[in-house]
Amino acid sequence: MAIALPNTQHDFERTVSALRAQVDERLGQWLPMAPAQDAIATAMRDGTLAPGKRVRPLLLLLTLKDLQQDAPVSEAGLDLACALEMVHAASLFLDDMPCMDNAELRRGRPTIHRQFGEDVAVLGSVALLSQAFGVAASAEGVPPPTRNQLVRLLAQATGAQGLVRGQYHDLREGQRARPLEAIAHTNRLKTCPLFTAAVEFAALIADASVSCTRHLNGFATELGLAFQLLDDLADGLSAQQIGKDSGKDVGKSTVVALLGPEAARQQVEEHLARADQHLIEAGIGDGHLAQLLGYFATRAR
Amino acid sequence: MAIALPNTQHDFERTVSALRAQVDERLGQWLPMAPAQDAIATAMRDGTLAPGKRVRPLLLLLTLKDLQQDAPVSEAGLDLACALEMVHAASLFLDDMPCMDNAELRRGRPTIHRQFGEDVAVLGSVALLSQAFGVAASAEGVPPPTRNQLVRLLAQATGAQGLVRGQYHDLREGQRARPLEAIAHTNRLKTCPLFTAAVEFAALIADASVSCTRHLNGFATELGLAFQLLDDLADGLSAQQIGKDSGKDVGKSTVVALLGPEAARQQVEEHLARADQHLIEAGIGDGHLAQLLGYFATRAR
């Protein structure tokens, strides 16, 4: 970027870049390069390592940093961050399929089923999910009862009350005209399970208090809602700019469609303000997560 | 049945029926009835509770009985048996989809995607998998480190080196003419992961020795191969008799297609004999699993 940034924001961006690189390196170890004829392993690796923001891993790692006085990232933290990204990638494989959103482009590349076939998309997704659970059950240095809790949390975030429910709502309810409340509900179901899992993973391995965990959960929920709105706002942009199919939401009832972009931006700012309040009440109002909110606020403008 | 059975076989059949009823009752609790508009929960319940042999749960519970001097089934045993059946059902949802085997009938009913749509089949399958992992991480009365091992075992059985690999092999290699060795390899990959997971789950919660566990694993592998061959033999029967699409294997290279039914039956008996030898070496040569082998031998004739 050409403009000079204030020091703290510059530091924050360096921290984020370094963490993202660590996540990608570790993901590459969990999902090693395979011979081309092993389409499942190739799809798992390519689909997960495709350029992305790594928001969920970052959320986990930044929360850990805030809870642990900026200590270096632990093996367990990094592995759990990878588990979240695997689950996220698995959900994208499936969401993009013809029986779901029927998308052609994702992260600037043809979607997994277009590259490898629908069977590989489905099986690769199952394999990624399985691996994520295996990673959570093996988190280095984490006490066994806590690992049990991590697995249970991941199962909730992924299953019938988590991502599955969100995607189903979006598919079946998204086409109808709906009141704002119902749209917000779908958004919450779709984006929040992995956002809240990320902060709760961090809270578990940092042994945070119940009250702190509750506020982190509130923070992640508000951030997830803001994130989904920003995603809907971006849907108006061209495919080149955002690297995935645009216009997929045409005809879908989104907050943006209902209220227009200005009011949606307003809502983003309200969610971010509430997220900030939760951080203050969690006792980490001036850490990395607070800076993350600043980054989102910039995106909203 | 009209014919009088010898007492032990009669007792065995009663034991199996009782265990199957316990599994179905517990599955019904894990997958409670949902309002019809909740298609995901309805598909999960209907697809898992549809009439079936419950071979994998039975394998786990009979192994437990053999290892624990016929003690009543524990909560943990029953829940883990349910977890295996959930994973099995999830794999059937996916295997039947148009991008895989494109089956219309399963367990005497229309396949899940035909009843509820492909999106529900995919999402229901993910939800069942997630729930199975959650159940394994919560197994009542099992020490936390053992629960983590259960989760890791399940992840291996389900993932890229387990069911996923077997199904992919079957899809991509099954159409080609292949030597017997390659067919046996695919059969092993397809059926054995959950069979070996079943006995290893039992060995873990019964705290069996390493040697016993190794022989149980060998037993389950041989049984799985026999089971797959019996399945291929049954594929020649009509849909009414076996309750799922028949003739799906026409053009596929199976042992039955390559050697004819007689030689396939011969192979079944060889696998069962080797399975029996493993039981003897595991020190449980005269328990319920040995009787299970007798039942399979009868099916082969």
TrEMBL record, chains A, B:
GO biological process: phospholipid biosynthetic process; terpenoid biosynthetic process
Keyword Metal-binding part of the UniProt annotation: yes
Keyword Magnesium assigned: yes
SUPFAM superfamilies the record matches: Terpenoid synthases
Source species, domain of life: Bacteria
Molecular functions (GO terms): metal ion binding; prenyltransferase activity
Cofactor list: Mg(2+)
Entry keywords, A to Z: Isoprene biosynthesis, Magnesium, Metal-binding, Transferase
Record-stated family: Belongs to the FPP/GGPP synthase family.
Full protein name: Polyprenyl synthetase family protein
Organism of derivation: Stutzerimonas marianensis
